[in-house]
Amino acid sequence: MKTANKKIDRVDSLIDHLWQHGYLTLSRKYGKYLPAPTPIGNYEVDAVAKYKKKIALGLTLTAEDLDDPNLITKLIALSNSKLKLSASKVTLFIGVPNELLIKAHLILSSLDDAISSQIKIVTLPGGKSLS
Fold first, then answer.
1. CB 36, CB 27: distance < 8 Å
2. What is the pLDDT of residues 75-112, one digit of tens each?
3. What's the domain range around 25?
4. CATH code, 94
């Protein structure tokens, strides 16, 4: 039960960050009133948001996710995805706990500049209580 609450808290923190930057949430995991986002390709996302005509995808990562060798493939696929709602490329917001921020930046720096420019890292508050 505690791990489910931690996941919900991580998604809530990511949604709060999107709201602070003017995004309107279209779908989100663990939401009461909004539907869960449909998988994009073979990958699940935690949130889909919109700002004017720009679409953003939200994804929360844990330590296990950052150690996954398929993470780079997932990030490339999600950042290159185009949704029905918008012909332009999406912005990918990745939420990571404070203690994993450096590791996330290292993974992001290994990507191509065109792809890494579409990915924004969001620090999730709470540190170890959220990981």
1. yes
2. 888 888 776 655 677 899 999 998 999 999 999 998 88
3. 2-129
4. 3.40.1350
Number of domains in the chain: 1
Q: Which residue has the tokens 């939420």?
A: 95
Ordered alpha helix ranges (H), the chain: 2-20, 63-67, 71-79, 101-109, 113-116
Q: Phi first, then psi: give them for residue 115, nearest 5 degrees.
A: -80, -45
pTM (global) more than 0.90: no
CA 5 – CA 120 distance, rounded (Å): 24
**Burial letters for 31-54: b for 16+ Cβ neighbours within 10 Å, e otherwise?**
beeeeebeebeeeebbbbbbeeee
Q: pLDDT for 24-46, tens place per residue?
A: 999 989 888 888 888 888 889 99
**Long-range contacts (CB closer than 8 Å, 24 or more residues apart) made by 25-32:** 25/49, 26/50, 26/85, 28/58
CA–CA separation, 77 and 40 (whole Å): 9
* Contact present, 93 and 57 (Cβ < 8 Å): yes
